[in-house]
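Quick one - inputs below.
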Amino acid sequence: MGMPASEIEALIKASLPDAQITIEDLAGDNDHFAATVISEAFRGIPRVRQHQLVYAALQGRMGGELHALALQTSAPE
Amino acid sequence: MDNPVFAEIQTHIDSAPVMLFMKGTPMFPQCGFSARVVQILKHTNIPFKSVNVLEDPEIRDGIKEFSNWPTIPQLYVKGEFIGGCDIVTEMYQSGELQSLLSDKGISQDEAA
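Output:
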């Protein structure tokens, strides 16, 4: 079950190369994560679109092998 | 290309100003994320309807494609997809959810 944080980070980086990513493994089980993603790609677009970009980067793993990823997204200050 | 379940999903969305697709029911949520959104909606005193996706596998799968959103719960206000648990929580904490609801003409008084 689950996938390592490094893999999540690599997938997000692959489609959002400028992203600053912080991932916390909430339960230590490779299955419940909280991620903060900061990228220029998010500037000026609604939160739903921002999260959709991250989900797209995860190529269908979200909701499948990746059960829980709490997401916070924003553009750089 | 159009999934036949989309029409059914749209009918649900149109049936109430605030519609929550969730796992379980508001009384007995069966997932922590669904439970959190229910709690937030109850806190805002907003009347809402819900669909238990665990009772309908076609809706459970279809809604993810419908909204291009991989997880449940999903909240819709006046037909617009607002987000899942993280977004609803963030919007509630910042007060954005409350202003969105009043901007859309959904008042807390209607709950009475």
